[in-house]
Amino acid sequence: MPSRTVTRSFDCLTAMRALGEPTRLRLVRLLIGGAKPVTELCETLNVTPYNVSKHLRVLKEAGLLEVEKQGQQRIYALAEAFSEKLAKNSNTLDLGCCQFHFDKLPE
After folding, report:
1. What single-letter DSSP state applies at residue 64?
2. Which helix (H) or strand (E) covers residue 94, if one does?
3. CA–CA gap between residue 77 and residue 97 (Å, rounded)
4. Hey, what's the torsion of the CAs at 100, 96, 55, 89, to 10 degrees?
């Protein structure tokens, strides 16, 4: 049975720090579309597995992602507490003090 790591509750300041890097924003934008394995994230972003893993770790520690281990693969998805902050159209993250419009961010 696959295990799923659940992170702590959502914190606005921690989220803003984690999202303050372009590669992390790109990762979140990809994961808005659904859970993905690390290999797919690397290929899509054309980033090395080492760098993708480093950024995924920061996002996970910030409570923005959850990870599920399936055999040798790790599947990343948006954390439930983080997903709840996304607007109904899933392209806008509303933190109260600011908003991230993932559909308007540069590639």
Report:
1. S
2. strand 92-94
3. 24
4. -50
| pTM of the complete model | 0.79
Crossing angle between the packed helical segments 38-45 and 49-61, to the nearest 10 degrees: 120
Helix axes 22-32, 38-45, angle to 10 degrees: 120
CB atoms under 10 Å from CB of 64, counted, come to 28
Which of 33, 35, 31, 2 has the alpha carbon at shortest distance from 18? 31
Q: Residue 59 and residue 38: Cα distance in Å, rounded?
A: 13
Model pLDDT for residues 11-48, shown as the tens digit of each residue? 778 888 888 899 999 999 899 889 999 999 999 999 99
